[in-house]
Amino acid sequence: MPIVSYPSSPLIPTLTLLLCLPVLFYFIAPSFLPPRRLTITAPDEFDDLSLFHKAISLSSSTSTSVKSHLPSTKSRLGSTSTFRPKIAFLFLTNSDLYFIPLWEKFFNQTRPSLYNIYVHADPSVKITPPTGVFADKFIPSKRTQRSSPTLISAARRLLATALLDDPSNAYFTLVSQNCIPLHSFNYLYKFLFDLHKLSKNLEYLSYIEILSDSPTLWDRYNARGENVMTPEVSFDQFRVGSQFFTLSRRHALKVIEDRRLWNKFKMPCINVESCYPEEHYFPTLLSMTDLEGCSQYTLTRVNWTDSVDGHPHTYNPPEVSPELIHRLRRSNSSYSYMFARKFSPGCLKPLMEIADSVIFKD
């Protein structure tokens, strides 16, 4: 019996292709589509505002002037006590804290009564629980993502937590897991609380980079759309700077009290290539509210000479040497850099080898 073949319907391959398209898109799309930027959700905003209100309420009764930081205050019993202001170290990370051994050596040079540690770790990333002075220092955290306002939120969350946790926190130093100290703790402490470095208002200066002449300033200003930032922030008021800073308590309060500028900077970006909200918000806010109280320089050295995709130069083990440390300390201002980034995890061993003889020998 002859075999009869029937022409297949053209609908079958078409339907098969249509059914396969979603599967193909699921596996292939992530390779050529830009990642979706995180936005600030209403629940996250509510949580932060609740935290901020608590910190502001507590701090409203705490004087932030230099007089409250001076020694020899009389207690109710008539004895003289010495007030020692503290430095709050705020670690912002989305990976393991590779340089904990180096930081522990840094902190072990002094008494715990002179510092506090707070860690904001992206909860979507599995991070090895630290021990030693970093144990139990993690604060309630939210997800973070580059080119999104979530990095601003994380920094504000750290500031508010530190303000609420200890009224003695007088300075707030934001660093990342890729940062290292360049001097001893005592050197940093004496520098920050040197009364000769007071502003005209007899307040401690904040050390934050504030730049108005960046060649990409216009693109960054319009990252959310042309003139979207007005009227709250005109182009002439817009500033950029380093993500990492050391703020006085007064300025830390200004940051968490702000609502007006935050409503603009929390908006999602259209041009992701020019969107670095954490490098824009803090310099712009403090420039507009108290420029004279800011040094306009950061204490964290970053090498941008061969940056890749917006990331600074990353130092690798062969580059670590005493000469590198001395070079990283030098700045164009009248004071030395206190921290540096960005170091790869493999740099820990060579850094530990020169910690006592170079890094912490001032």
From TrEMBL:
GO terms of molecular function: glycosyltransferase activity
Transmembrane feature ranges: 12-29
Keywords: Glycoprotein, Glycosyltransferase, Membrane, Transferase, Transmembrane, Transmembrane helix
Membrane topology type: Single-pass type II membrane protein
Cross-referenced InterPro entries: BC10-like, Glyco_trans_14
Gene Ontology CC annotation, any one: membrane
Coiled coil: none
PANTHER family: CORE-2/I-BRANCHING BETA-1,6-N-ACETYLGLUCOSAMINYLTRANSFERASE FAMILY PROTEIN-RELATED (PTHR31042), DUF4005 DOMAIN-CONTAINING PROTEIN (PTHR31042:SF63)
Full protein name: Glycosyltransferase BC10
